[in-house]
Amino acid sequence: MSLSRGTSAFTLKIAAIVAMTANHVANIFGGVMPEALTVGLYTLGGFTFPIMAFLLCEGYRYTSNIRRYAARLAVFAGVAEVPWFLLWGPSLNVLFTLLISLGLLWAGDHTRSRVAYAGVLAAGLVASWFCDWALAGPLMVVLFHRLREQSRGVLTTMLVFGLALGLPTLLGIMATYQGSPSDIPLVIQWGALGYYTLGFAGATFLMTTYNGKRGPSLKWFFYAYYPTHLMALWVIAQALSV
User: Which pLDDT score, from 0 to 100, does residue 5 have?
Assistant: First the structure.
């Protein structure tokens, strides 16, 4: 696809699942892979959540049935929780984060009182504490939605979260090199820095070239891919005793 035609939602989804798979491979098999490859895969993973958050806002904006949309997310979140639990233990996968975020978008557009919405937002953030991308995930979705009409809304959102998440990571790396003990291996720290810098930058480019078109419709494939690839990675990890 030529850049002059922009990036479709289909292309964004493909980029997200490739990056998501790379990130999960690094997370699961990083201990037995070359460090440079692990850092590279983590960096590529930085495309994932921003694109998922952006597309959730697009889905919310154009869906004809918000209840059906939420139900699909809930069903696949529940299915994916089985391999997620097998891989990472008792926490909730990112589809639950997106489900909470969807509820916050709806509440933001249907709650007249700012005080009431502040309470709903706080409750959503507390609920997300048990999920992947806790706190930052729902806030990113809400900010994408709030700034959707601004020409630099995507860039602003990504700069906010790139700095908020990347700067502490950079400071942590510097502290580690200066001799401060850390429970996080340096390869993971460098991977996280790549995630929040180069990964976020790549995602920003794709989102800012979004042309508003859906492209080929493979809705059920994208929903099913998440739990399927998690289960496949768990099986491979068991076979390799990783």
Answer: 75
Q: Looking at residue 178, what is its pLDDT?
A: 93
Long-range contacts (CB closer than 8 Å, 24 or more residues apart) made by 57-65: 57/105, 57/141, 57/144, 57/145, 57/148, 58/9, 60/102, 60/105, 60/106, 60/145, 61/148
Within a 10 A sphere around the Cβ of 225, how many other Cβ atoms?
Answer: 18
Backbone angles phi, psi at 6, to 5 degrees: 80, -170
How many angstroms separate the CA atoms of 47 and 45, rounded? 5
C-beta of residue 136 within 8 angstroms of C-beta of residue 164: yes
Closest CA to 97 of 64, 63, 62, 49: 49
In Å, what is the CA distance from 230 to each residue of 3, 24, 222, 238? 32, 8, 13, 12
Mean pLDDT of the chain: 95
Instruction: Please state whether the predicted TM-score (pTM) of the whole model is above 0.90.
Output: yes
Domain edges within the chain: 3-62+133-240
Which residues of the chain are modeled with pLDDT < 70?
1-4
